[in-house]
Design brief:
The complex is a heterodimer of chains A (151) and B (369).
Chain A (H helix, E strand, L loop, with lengths): L14 H4 L8 H18 L3 E4 L9 H9 L5 E5 L3 E6 L5 E7 L5 E8 L10 H5 L1 H13 L9
Antiparallel strand pairs in A: 1-5, 2-3, 3-4, 4-5
Helix pairs in contact in A: 2-3
Chain B lengths: L10 H7 L4 H14 L7 H10 L4 E6 L5 H7 L4 H10 L1 E5 L7 H14 L5 E5 L2 E2 L9 E2 L2 E2 H9 L4 E5 L1 H5 L1 H4 L7 E2 L1 H4 L5 E4 L6 H14 L12 H4 L10 H6 L9 H4 L18 H4 L41 H10 L1 H20 L6 H7 L1
Parallel strand pairs in B: 1-2, 1-3, 3-7, 7-9
Antiparallel strand pairs in B: 4-8, 5-6
Classes of the chains: A alpha+beta (151), B alpha/beta (369).
Cofactor (chain B): [4Fe-4S] cluster; [3Fe-4S] cluster
Pfam family, one (chain B): Oxidored_q6
Subunit structure (chain B): Heterodimer of a large and a small subunit.
Chain lengths: 151, 369
Amino acid sequence: MSGLDQIPVTIESSASCSARSRDFGNAPAVLNQIRDALERLVSSGEETCIDLNAMPFGPGDLERLTELLGTGEAEASVEALGPTRIRETGIPGVWLVDYLNAEGQRLTLHVEIATVPQILRPQPQDLACAIERLDARLTRLRDPAHSPLSS
Amino acid sequence: MANLKTPDKTLGEGLREIGLSRRGFLKFCAATASMMALPPNLVPAIAAALEQARRPSVIWLSFQECTGCTESLTRSHSPSVENLILDLVSLDYHHTLQAAAGEAAEEARLQAMEANRGQYLVIVDGSIPGPDANPGYSTVAGHSNYDILMETVEHAAAVIAVGTCAAFGGLPQAKPNPTGAMSVMDLVHDKPVINVSGCPPIPMVITGVLAHYLTFGRLPELDAYRRPMAFYGQSIHDRCYRRPFYDKGLFAESFDDAGAKLGWCLYRLGCKGPTTYNACATMRWNSGTSWPVESGHPCLGCSEPGFWDDAGFYEPVSVPIGVTSKTLIEGAAVGAVAGAGIAALARKAKKEAVANRQPVTIDELEQKL
């Protein structure tokens, strides 16, 4: 034990820990990219998707970006290949789409600049057979065996 | 043993058969695009291509290696998606993972080669004692690694060298290279060879290359070292979140100084970021938690040729002949332009080292002993 007390110990001020989480200043660049995309959405309806997983963010950058974008009114969840959480940001038309696997680990995180995120819309192939599927239910309903009056 | 012929079912049909909805498929494609380092606007094209893709036969050969590459792949962090990709290739031979052993295992390899002649992929991890080396250093079922490699690649569509040992010789080839270790591209000249280097490679990069092959039916664009540009196209330095500190000339000088605590650039602590091409800075490790530089340690340059024999891990980027340390420090202070020049010089020196490499033979080694 004799040698240990010779090691100088300094206690850092708690102020540096309690302050807002540090970031590396990469959020504003992405915000500008979102602004350009938003302009295109408004002027021509062109949608954009940005993969935040591909950004060379430092610790705190993502938190800063989501903090700056804020939270909007709409929230949705899709259960397919694990959950996908969709959240409107405080900027209308800018969505955060968080793709998670069944264990809740992030597969990728997108910012979608669109009126409605792609994954919330019915897929064209599913839409193509939607009438067929509803017709099958209507036919079943017309079948006397399934009529509520027959029971 | 199941029929090893590539099935006629497309990938889309296979996925729907296991109950994956179209939204699930879209999500799978979004994650795959991210894994292939492709922009999300390509997701519809990826979905259309994957829908029609067919399951390729894959033969995985392990030679002089530590199994770290297989560990990396099987412990990859997004199991649902990466398992799907692995389920969608027919892994017909992998002597660490397969249930069969002995002659049955070798028979599986031969059957897969015969049934998918000209179409199967060969993945290699580990380096190979060259044709002039003592074959006894590494054998499987009594055959030398060299013979197995040459026999297996003869009718392959392409060869993917996974890990720095297979790609560039790696640790087994470090001086004095007692086993006469060679890389896959040193030995295979008549087939496309793709190098997925790294010690180990990022798991998503391994599956990303497979996904690319599944998606586009061909191999990705490669750099001068035959590495996929999508993952190895930019240096660690150029994608590093600490780069702004380098540009400002703010460096950590030791592991516990104020600069290190403030997250400044690790260049002077030996960071090989300027000469290393890999995707760690964006893809990260351990469920996307962190990567070496974010943990406060310089990049070791594990995905580059000669990484064991180049400068020490804690010496600033190798000082090539003709560049003094004074020039280096000035270059660092001046910033990006000079840094890029030094990086180019270092790459050139590495290239020359690779070209002039002379493995030590066993006889030579014994004489030395």
